[in-house]
Design goal:
The complex is a heterodimer of chains A (340) and B (611). By secondary structure, chain A is α/β, with parallel strands linked by helices. Chain A has a domain of 212 residues: Rossmann fold (3-Layer(aba) Sandwich). Helices cover 31% and strands 19% of the residues of chain A. Chain A has an eight-stranded mixed sheet, with helices on both faces. Chain A has a three-stranded antiparallel sheet with strand order 8-9-10. The longest helix of chain A is centred in the C-terminal third of the chain and has 16 residues. Chain A is globular, with a radius of gyration of 23 Å. Chain B has three domains: 220 residues, Pyruvate-ferredoxin Oxidoreductase, domain 3 (3-Layer(aba) Sandwich), CATH 3.40.920.10; 187 residues, Rossmann fold; 106 residues, Rossmann fold (3-Layer(aba) Sandwich), CATH 3.40.50. Helix content of chain B is 36%, strand content 21%. A seven-stranded mixed sheet of chain B has the order 11-10-12-13-15-14-21, sandwiched between helices. Chain B has a six-stranded mixed sheet with strand order 3-4-2-5-6-7, sandwiched between helices. With 611 residues, chain B is an alpha/beta fold. The chains are: A alpha/beta (340), B alpha/beta (611). Chains A and B meet through strand 1, strand 2, helix 4, helix 6 and helix 12 of A and helix 1, strand 9, helix 9, helix 11 and helix 12 of B. Strand 2 of chain A pairs parallel with strand 17 of chain B, so a sheet runs across the interface.
Chain lengths: 340, 611
């Protein structure tokens, strides 16, 4: 068969659907994320054989089985480290890590932060449902303080992680947030993550309708979402509300929500800048604060040196300096002698 | 007066001093020179885990033992003939092991009241009769190097640090070795600090000339070249040989070497060495922890590189879950364990063989992993190469066991011709339009599954840690399938037995005693066997390199001996395995003292059993 027949240049959604039955609970937010991923991938301009999905353990980590690409469902928390090896071994691959709040922030927290600081060109989709689903409902590192679950009948005692502040603190070069229910926006975040060169980290609010239903309801319900979601757009003032009449100002060093009207106009509002780490960090701290809307969109996006590119440069530099390695010369060593 | 030169077959020197005295460097230089001179040799570095324990303390004593000979030798020697003690603590720690009447060379300047107290001496052992039964040379090395470097614009402290070169120079004089290789090495080492080249060379010459002029030595010694087989030789230590063996494996397979690892004693030198091979395209990745070390290596193997990780026992423990993943994912991977004393942090800088069971069984579930163990520093090269071959051919993680003694010990190594090594076929899967692709279909002979790497058109597939359905590789919880897959994974590992050559028996094929060994105890067991055979004992030696699978012909060899002894630096791990697998009454000789067996330990035990 000719290659042309094999390589269909025009991929569509169905090309990314594997033959495996999807086994998430009916109503799980993971379905929406899978569907949007399968929808948007044909538009990324990638050859299908160059795409690799790597996951750890958890409900979300079954994701690679359902994508008809290369995939590796690995062990709990280690997906970022596996993905690092996959990418370093073959930098031509488009590598995607599928992980959850427990996988990425609890058992695999160490790998997550180190992937981000190294800035390998790997895309992380963190499905945050603020609960342990696969083990049937214990609190997770993003569950709110005092969460009552089977393992915390009197309420959890640990303060939750802020996944985006953690990523920004690790000097991630692309940090964004999406919501499972906002499908068009989710697709755009996947596209942005793909086009960013360097580690991309997208937190996706994902509803677990069995163990933590409605965790993000204020941000997804039609009646409330315009007051609880702050859509981030680069170089645009931070406006929100049903009437788009509320916004964020910075008073001294302190962000505040204000209503536009007599005292404040749109010109007074803080203008989002995806390249400003301080703004991104400030916005990330709106999470878990009832007085502030939840920012959704790209928090931070800058170009930083990419690990695998630098590794390749080191190899080229070493070859230029020392010449291409000669194994026999290496075996012979500098000091040898001949026995007749 | 002319000094007599005596011929000796073999000499064992132990250099001992404070951690800051440069004993490892001194020993290594003597070793390199001795290799060039053409003796056979074997070394045993022995240093504390602390980078700098308090100066002068017993805990801070660092030593390097070197055995060199005009004959074929296999161990760093049981008892030193010469002890170089740079301070009282070094004398205190090592004197008891010196051969009766042996030579002691000390730096007299270091025998100050303070240092004597630190070493726990109530009186000066040089004066109170402690060393009277030995041939003692008490030399004011610090004073002499200070004189040698007089007028140089360097600090007295820097001058004093050259006293190890004085000792080295003196030993070169006593044993008739050339100074040039060391002078050249100093020139390279301190290329940017010419004053240090100058001071060290002055100290080296001062030591040599001291021997020549003071007329206190009763004799000089000559050790002839050893009758090594014809060929080109170099000196090599185990960690370096392991690193080069891994590189050779990747080059023969024509796939890049990816090393993921985390620093740990005594394995770090593998990371350092491979990191210097960037010009070979080697990718080293110092990961955030041991787990990321191995998982990145597994990821690289999934992508078609030769994934390698190395560590020591505590790090291997952390990697256990990931090794299980490589087992079920059936991906090539080489895991090196440079064993050290355990449990837990144990004895980081001391040798032990107590991780055999960890390699064989240290995982959840039925997770068979092939295990090969290197037998000498130079054999680490071949063991590493074979580990690469098996990992690639059978799509499996392979354990390579070395140990602290092999890793840091060195010996003359017959340099292989790279072209003579076999090539390794990675046999990557390619799309076949006539047949559907099944990631868990198997090669009929080896049972290896296809290695289909991302980037290959048409072979998109998913693997993972959940049980696989036979052939398709889809997730399966079917009871019969799990049983079948468990058997297939085990059988695949056992198939490696077909690649293991016939077992060599040193000595007769039957007799009163078989010494059975594995790993780094090879040299001691071999020397013990030779001594026993020279005594007329019906003793033979079999050494195992592959421990999983065990060689096909081992069972029939074992039953031909009246007794079997298994010396191990653990509490009897191979013994238990052999007893269980072959139902033979093997006896263990078990030491966990952080150092290799003395050949005499084994000789004594065998004589105790067979008379």
């Amino acid at each position: 068969m000719s290659e042309a027949k094999v390589k269909n240049p025009k991929l569509d959604r169905r090309d990314f659907v594997s033959d495996q039955a999807v086994r998430w609970c009916p109503g799980c937010g993971d379905y929406a994320i899978l569907a949007q991923t399968q929808k948007v991938f044909p538009d990324l301009g990638l050859d299908k054989e160059k795409i690799v999905f790597i996951s750890g353990i958890g409900c979300s980590s079954r994701f690679p089985y359902y994508m008809n690409t290369y995939g590796f469902h690995t062990i709990h928390g280690r997906a970022p480290a596996i993905a690092s090896g996959v990418k370093l071994a073959n930098p031509d691959l488009s590598v995607w890590v599928i992980t959850g709040d427990g996988d990425a922030l609890s058992i695999g927290g160490n790998h997550t932060i180190h992937l981000l600081r190294r800035n390998l060109d790997v895309n992380v989709m963190l499905f945050n449902n603020r609960i342990y689903g696969l083990t049937k409902g214990q609190y997770s590192p993003t569950s709110e303080l005092g969460k009552i679950t089977k393992s915390t009948p009197l309420g959890s005692l640990d303060r939750p992680f802020n996944p985006l502040a953690l990523a920004l603190g690790s000097h991630a070069s692309f940090v964004a947030r999406a919501i499972d229910r906002e499908t068009a926006h989710l697709q755009s975040m996947i596209q942005r993550a793909h086009s960013h060169k360097g580690s991309s980290y997208v937190e996706i609010y994902q509803n677990c309708n069995i163990f933590n239903d409605k965790a993000f309801a204020p941000m997804t319900d039609r009646e409330t979402k315009s007051d609880t979601v702050l859509w981030l757009e680069d170089k645009k003032p931070l406006l929100f509300g049903a009437e788009m009449n509320k916004g964020i100002i910075v008073d001294g060093n302190t962000p505040k929500v204000v209503e536009l009207g007599d005292k404040w106009s749109a010109d007074d509002l803080l203008v989002h800048d995806e390249t400003d780490w301080t703004i991104a960090m400030m916005l990330s701290h709106f999470t878990y604060q009832d007085d502030f809307p939840n920012p959704i969109g790209v928090f931070y996006c800058v170009d930083e040196p990419i690990y695998e590119v630098m590794l390749d440069e080191q190899i080229k530099f070493a070859i230029k300096n020392k010449g291409k390695g000669d194994i026999q010369a290496l075996l012979d060593g500098a000091d040898n002698w001949v026995v007749e | 007066m002319s000094i007599e030169t005596k011929n000796l077959d073999k000499v064992v020197i132990r250099f001992a001093g404070d951690s800051g005295d440069g004993m490892q460097l001194t020993g290594t230089r003597f070793t390199e020179t001795t290799a060039i001179v053409g003796n056979d040799l074997s070394t045993l570095p022995d240093y504390p885990a602390e980078i700098r324990a308090p100066a002068g303390s017993l805990a801070g004593v660092s030593a390097f033992q070197l055995h060199f000979s005009s004959k074929d030798i296999h161990t760093p020697g049981d008892t030193p003939d010469v002890l170089v003690a740079m301070n009282p603590a070094a004398l205190k720690v090592h004197l008891s092991e010196l051969i009766a009447g042996g030579i002691i060379i000390v730096n007299e300047n270091a025998f100050s009241p303070k240092n004597l107290k630190l070493a726990g001496y109530e009186s000066n052992p040089l004066e109170d009769g402690t060393v009277d039964s030995y041939e003692i040379y008490s030399i004011q090395m610090s004073t002499l190097v200070s004189k040698a470097c007089e007028g140089m614009d360097i600090s007295p402290k820097t001058v004093d640090r050259t006293k190890n070169m004085f000792a080295l120079g003196l030993l070169y004089w006593i044993y008739n070795r050339p100074l040039e290789p060391t002078i050249q090495w100093l020139g390279k080492k301190f290329a940017k600090r010419p004053e240090l080249v100058d001071s060290n060379v002055k100290a080296l010459n001062a030591g040599y000339n001291y021997g020549e002029t003071v007329e206190i030595f009763s004799a000089r010694y000559n050790v002839d070249k050893a009758p090594l087989a014809a060929g080109k030789y170099r000196n090599i230590n185990g960690n370096y040989a392991t690193s080069v063996g891994l590189l050779a494996g990747s080059i023969k397979a024509d796939i890049p070497l990816f090393y993921g690892g985390y620093p740990i004693t005594p394995a770090s030198d593998i990371l350092h060495t491979l990191a210097s091979f960037r010009h070979f395209g080697v990718k080293t990745f110092q990961a955030e922890d041991e787990i990321a070390g191995i998982t990145s290596a597994i990821g690289s193997s999934f992508s078609g590189n030769l994934g390698v990780t190395a560590s020591s026992g505590p790090g291997i423990a952390l990697k256990a879950e990931a090794i299980g993943l490589a087992v079920i994912a059936e991906l090539p991977l080489v895991i090196v364990n440079v064993q050290r004393g355990g449990p837990s942090t144990g004895l980081p800088t001391k040798t032990e063989q107590a991780d055999l069971f960890q390699a064989l069984y240290g995982r959840n579930g039925e997770a068979p992993v092939p295990v090969i163990a290197a037998q000498t520093p130079g054999d680490c090269f071949y063991a590493a190469f074979e580990a690469c071959q098996a990992a690639i051919k059978y799509r499996t993680p392979v354990f390579l066991l070395t140990d602290g003694y092999l890793a840091n010990g060195s010996e003359p190594w017959s340099i292989p011709n790279f072209d003579d090594l076999p090539s390794i076929d990675p046999n990557f899967a390619e799309q076949n339009d006539d047949l559907p692709f099944f990631p868990y279909s198997r090669d009929k002979k080896t049972l290896a599954r296809p290695w289909a790497i991302p980037g290959t058109v048409g072979l998109e597939h998913r693997i993972g840690g959940l049980e696989k359905e036979d052939v398709t590789g889809n997730v399966s919880y079917d009871p019969e399938n799990h049983h079948k897959m468990t058997e297939l994974r085990e059988q695949k590992v056992q198939n490696i037995v077909n690649d293991i050559p016939k077992t060599q028996v040193l000595g007769k094929n039957s007799g009163d005693m078989l010494i059975l060994s594995w790993g780094g105890t090879y040299g001691s067991c071999r020397s013990a066997t030779e001594r026993l055979q020279n005594d007329g004992k019906k003793v033979s030696h079999v050494h195992l390199r592959w421990i999983n699978p065990l060689p096909k012909d081992l069972g029939e060899i074992l039953i031909r001996f009246k007794n079997i002894i298994i010396p191990e630096l653990n509490m009897g791990q191979l013994s238990k395995l052999i007893r269980a697998d072959y139902l033979v009454d093997a006896v263990g000789l078990n030491h966990v003292k952080g150092r290799p067996f003395k050949a005499s330990d084994i000789v004594d035990k065998v004589k105790e059993i067979i008379g």
